[in-house]
Design a protein that fits this description.
With 191 residues, the chain is an alpha+beta fold. The protein has one domain (43-189). It is 29% helix and 36% strand. It has helices at residues 2-28, 54-71, 129-139; strands at 45-52, 77-80, 84-92, 95-107, 113-122, 146-149, 154-157, 169-176, 181-189. A six-stranded antiparallel sheet has the order 2-3-4-5-7-6. Strands 1-9-8 form a three-stranded antiparallel sheet. The longest helix has 27 residues, at 2-28. The termini are far apart. 18% of the residues are buried.
């Protein structure tokens, strides 16, 4: 009888070690990022320059996210304050853990936007930023023009690939959230 208990204990110990090894490999394996998208060539267009503020853009973002939530694709929120803040939750084992990611936005010369990760809060757990970004990327369906890049700790927003009505295109000219100075150029194709 003692031999059976020893074998059962060794079998259970082996199973636990295998599970821990699998979890460690999954957590610490490198994350593959997609390359940054290339800007699409510009068509002949009429340009309209728009200056906005955080309050108005928060309303636009909220409306967009609410439409996506109605389709069942998203369960996160984005707010513009002195930084861009992304709120959501991720599944860890059988629990849902809330997180908050803070980003510093940067308008690129090609009109697209990079959100560089600046802060992270994940429940009471201190997880690597790349892990949380990867978990968010895998858990939610973001639009095609939003690329989450965990290794670089950033989100790339291809405004030139965003689908708007009447083939309208948008380019970010300036994003200074601390001064509440946000400027875009809207391009309406004439061809």
């Amino acid at each position: 009888m003692n031999k059976k208990w020893k074998l059962a204990f060794l079998g259970l110990l082996t199973l636990n070690v295998i599970i821990v090894l699998i979890l460690a490999i999954a957590l610490f394996s490198p994350i593959k990022d997609e390359p940054l998208p290339k800007a699409q060539p510009e068509k002949e267009a009429v340009e309209f320059h728009v200056q906005s503020n955080k309050e108005d853009l928060n309303r636009v973002i909220k409306t967009f996210i609410e439409k996506e939530k109605a389709k069942g694709f998203v369960d996160y929120n984005v707010y513009l304050r002195d930084q861009v803040e992304l709120y959501g939750d991720i599944a860890v084992f059988s629990e849902r853990i809330n997180y908050k990611l803070s980003f510093e936005p940067e308008a690129l010369k090609n009109g697209n936007v990079i959100l560089r990760q600046k802060g992270i809060k994940v429940g009471r757990i201190n997880l690597p930023v790349s892990y949380v970004l990867k978990a968010a990327r895998d858990a939610y369906q973001f639009p095609d023009w939003v690329k989450i890049m965990p290794n670089d700790e950033l989100i790339y927003i291809s405004l030139d690939k965003m689908k708007l009505e009447s083939d309208l295109k948008v380019k970010a000219d300036r994003i200074d959230l601390k001064k509440d100075d946000i400027r875009f150029t809207f391009q309406l194709p004439t061809e």
